[in-house]
Amino acid sequence: MPVFRSFFHYVWRHKRYFIAYLIVAGASRVAESVQPFFLKAITADATNGQFIHAFWIVITLGMVMLAGTLTYAFSMILSDKNVMLSAVDLQMEVMKRIHELDFSYHTEKSSGKLISIMKRGEDAFLTMYDSIIREGYAVVISLVVMLYAFWGVSPKYFWFSLTILFLAFVSSIPLVKSNMVKRKIFIGIDDEVSGVRVDNLMNFDTVKYFAKEFYEQIRLGNLLSKWNDAAQAYFFTFRYFDLIIGNLSNIAMAGTLFLAITDLAQGLIDLPQFVLIASFSAAFFPKMVSTLLTARNMAKKYGDMEQYLNVLNEPVLVKDPQNPSIVNNLSGRIKFDKVGFAYREGQPIFANFSLDVRPGETVALVGLSGSGKTTLVKLLMRMYDLTAGSISIDGVKTSDMSKSYLRGLIGIVPQDPLLFNNTLRYNLGYAKTDASEEELWEALGYAKLDDFVKNLPEGLETRVGERGIKLSGGQRQRLAIARVLLEKAKIIVFDEATSSLDSESEKAVQEAFWSLIKDEGNPRTSIIIAHRLSTVMRADRIIVLREGTITEAGTHKSLLKRSAGLYSRLWALQKGGFLGDTQMT
């Protein structure tokens, strides 16, 4: 099975610990399993009056038990090393895969569901290790020793035990299958519940703004009702398992003891042999039930593990080239050449789109909502692959570069900057992890955020909360601007980067922005996306988009001269302010 194959693939990565565990644990389990043989010998000596010899057997048994305890503890240390290193490897690969997966995957995937899958998968890996490697291995050794002992007494004990084991195994198959089906249904609803909870936690401010607390409670309550029904159906499969398998264990023990008492009464076995059979029966058959219950639990975790591993099987649509290219002596020329793209087949956003941005040029993209401005930036950064044409930087196609290298060439301030639940220092330094203290404060100064940070009790060590919730929208945006100023990339993208700033802060940030990109010693190519047209007045070229097509291009002054043009109309509508979505006609 792929899940078990993958499971052992990760376990075997650290095989020195795994093999060492099997050896040491094997010795420990043998030491535990042979104890009935000692009880047999002690009973025989006591029956024959050889109490001194029995005493030395007791001492030997104590030493064996001590050795078993010590080797067991050491085996657990080895298995802990093995399982945790293997689990870390798997977690790292899943996270790496999540990072590799395309923008489209993350826009369609519920964060709450993905978090649930990861958490359950990590727990499933540890559970499967306990079930298979630890408990399963121990039971196999105990079974071999018991069957060897039973065969030595009489083959009928051997065959009776095997028959019970076979019946227990066969009976457990439909029960486990039913358990897995019910669990799959339960997991689906549980993921929905998790998604609603995460939605409420992530958007608690929206819930409060619209006074929808009761509405959200009703929504969750209806879902929890389905969750309860699915959980009850799932839990009933456990009770069936307990009744059937538990009774088989009772039958096995009672049947074995009945055979042993009958043989003892008929003189077919002696008292020491009876003690041997009784000891093995009392030790093994409850352990058999425990193992089958563990197998049931493992089956429960099988689905969790399968979902977890499926993350690794998710296809990466935007792939890195086998032999990626780099740009030598980057100047920052960007060329969109006959670009075609559609999010959905038959609904093209761009068709035969071309634009040439010269090195050091500032190009502004203007247009109504949905005209394709932000999509162009996503295509530039290879969040999606083109359906036609190409995009190149200094003559090197972006499809020929590795995604991480390409995105490292571009500094971006997104429209809605979300921050890590960490400190201001961490979030600011994310663009340049080795930045000096002086560089950090210089970037904050450019973004007009230095006074704010200095007045905080913890300064740069202040935690910003989840998504930067402890900061205002303008502060988050200025921090994002400071971050890209710190990065000092050769190509800079501002996507509505000053939309949350007041007029005074916007003016100060714009001055810092223009001084950065128009640095005579190191000019930068920049793309500005803005609804607020006052932001783009100083751009070298303004590109007006409508439905993925360039309708006008020129400077602010030249475009205003075209009274019938879209840019001129938009300027008149907003009077130098913000172009809202209501002004789309």
Automatic annotation (TrEMBL):
Its record classes its membrane topology as: Multi-pass membrane protein
- Domain ABC transporter, by residue range, is 334-572
**What is an example of a GO molecular function annotated in this UniProt entry?**
ABC-type transporter activity
Where in this chain does the record put each ABC transmembrane type-1 domain? 19-285
Residue ranges of the TM segments? 55-74, 132-151, 157-176, 240-262, 274-295
Xref: PANTHER family: ATP-BINDING CASSETTE SUB-FAMILY B, MITOCHONDRIAL POTASSIUM CHANNEL ATP-BINDING SUBUNIT
Cell compartments where the protein resides: Cell membrane
Question: Which species is this record about?
Answer: Candidatus Amesbacteria bacterium RIFCSPLOWO2_01_FULL_48_25
Q: What is this protein called?
A: ABC transporter ATP-binding protein
Is Transmembrane set as a keyword in this record?
yes
Lineage here is: Bacteria, Candidatus Amesiibacteriota
Give the superkingdom in one word.
Answer: Bacteria
Keyword Membrane present in the record's keywords: the answer is yes
SUPFAM superfamilies given in the database record: ABC transporter transmembrane region, P-loop containing nucleoside triphosphate hydrolases
Question: Which UniProt key words apply to this protein?
Answer: ATP-binding, Membrane, Nucleotide-binding, Transmembrane, Transmembrane helix
